[in-house]
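User: Reviewer 2 asked us to show a designed sequence for the structure in our supplementary figure. I'm pasting the structure tokens here. Could you produce the per-position amino acids so we can include them in the response letter?
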């Protein structure tokens, strides 16, 4: 596997054009960056970014995805070339989505991956906490998530499973602020998860990171030949990439940990946000750049994959997991002759 680059363009009024086999980024008619097209997997543009039509055609020809997002990271549009996914795999995926037993088992695995990884975030925080109150709160949260994991096998249908996932998320986000350094909690307070729009700085940071993980998960599914729209845990709706949301669940705690690192190390401070009329909060341009750089650096870090029994860059893990999803959907069997099912990526 090769970890190709995603180019994130965050500078307002940038203009992207084709220059032979190179993508050129201009700001006020000044060239700021040149990137050979063969180095790119995707181009993601935040806010008011211009593009030439020849570049758009070339990106489609080279199977380089173009994604347009709002300044906040909310999805707007996506340009892709021809879909080269395996039609037989996609047909199997569509059939599996109609089978209640398979959908429940698949969705249960996605929730288990998310909750286990979230629990590790709280346990790690409890080990590093500076006060007894923080240790107690984080430990209590980890115990609540452990209770959710024990309850998952008893979920009789998708609605019950989604209820367990929602309660686990509520418990987790209630404790997440305890991982912010004490002196920074005033600026980065958080009253649960809010979005569309985020109502505080920390939620704005999480939403931005989630949007980048979402793009990577969707691209990984397409590379594996799967249909990102047809999922199992998330309800199917027009325009919703349900399977990408399913895959993204186990990666949300990675975004949370990076957000905490950026805040606690002072790489992002309170001045990096705009507080909008009506209560919405968004990242400013310079803060977005800092987050993108940290995200790209994090994706290069090697992490041990338990099933592969080897270290791989974090940025490749969504592709590995997408292929494991395809394996489960095809009904491939393990050494014991049982259907392999889906095994989420769990942090050890």
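Assistant: Here is a per-position design you can include in the supplement:
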């Amino acid at each position: 596997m090769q970890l190709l680059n995603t180019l994130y363009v965050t500078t307002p009024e940038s203009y992207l054009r084709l220059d032979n086999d190179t993508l050129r980024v201009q700001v006020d008619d000044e060239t700021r960056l040149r990137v050979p097209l063969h180095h790119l997997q995707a181009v993601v543009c935040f806010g008011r970014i211009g593009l030439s039509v020849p570049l758009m055609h070339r990106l489609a020809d080279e199977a380089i995805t173009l994604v347009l997002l709002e300044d906040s990271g909310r999805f707007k549009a996506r340009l892709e070339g021809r879909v080269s996914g395996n039609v037989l795999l996609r047909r199997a995926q569509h059939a599996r989505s109609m089978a209640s037993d398979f959908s429940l088992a698949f969705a249960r695995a996605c929730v288990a991956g998310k909750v286990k990884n979230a629990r590790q975030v709280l346990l790690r925080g409890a080990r590093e906490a500076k006060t007894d109150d923080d240790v107690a709160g984080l430990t209590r949260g980890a115990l609540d998530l452990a209770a959710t994991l024990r309850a998952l096998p008893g979920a009789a249908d998708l609605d019950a499973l989604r209820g367990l996932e929602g309660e686990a998320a509520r418990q987790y986000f209630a404790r997440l602020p305890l991982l912010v350094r004490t002196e920074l909690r005033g600026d980065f307070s958080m009253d649960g998860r809010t979005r569309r729009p985020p109502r505080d700085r920390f939620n704005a940071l999480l939403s931005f990171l989630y949007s980048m993980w979402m793009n990577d998960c969707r691209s990984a599914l397409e590379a594996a030949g799967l249909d990102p729209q047809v999922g199992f845990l998330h309800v199917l709706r027009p325009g919703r990439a349900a399977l990408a949301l399913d895959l993204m669940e186990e990666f949300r705690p990675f975004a949370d940990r990076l957000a905490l690192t950026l805040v606690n190390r002072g790489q992002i401070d309170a001045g990096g946000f705009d507080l909008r009329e009506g209560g919405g909060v968004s990242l400013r341009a310079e803060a977005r750049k800092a987050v993108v750089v940290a995200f790209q650096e994090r994706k290069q870090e090697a992490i041990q994959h338990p099933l592969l029994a080897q270290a791989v860059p974090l940025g490749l893990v969504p592709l590995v997991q997408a292929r494991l999803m395809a394996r489960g959907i095809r009904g491939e069997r393990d050494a014991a002759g049982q259907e392999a099912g889906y095994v989420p990526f769990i942090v050890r």
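For the response letter, you might also mention the following. The two ends are 23 Å apart (CA to CA). The chain is about 45% helix and 15% strand.
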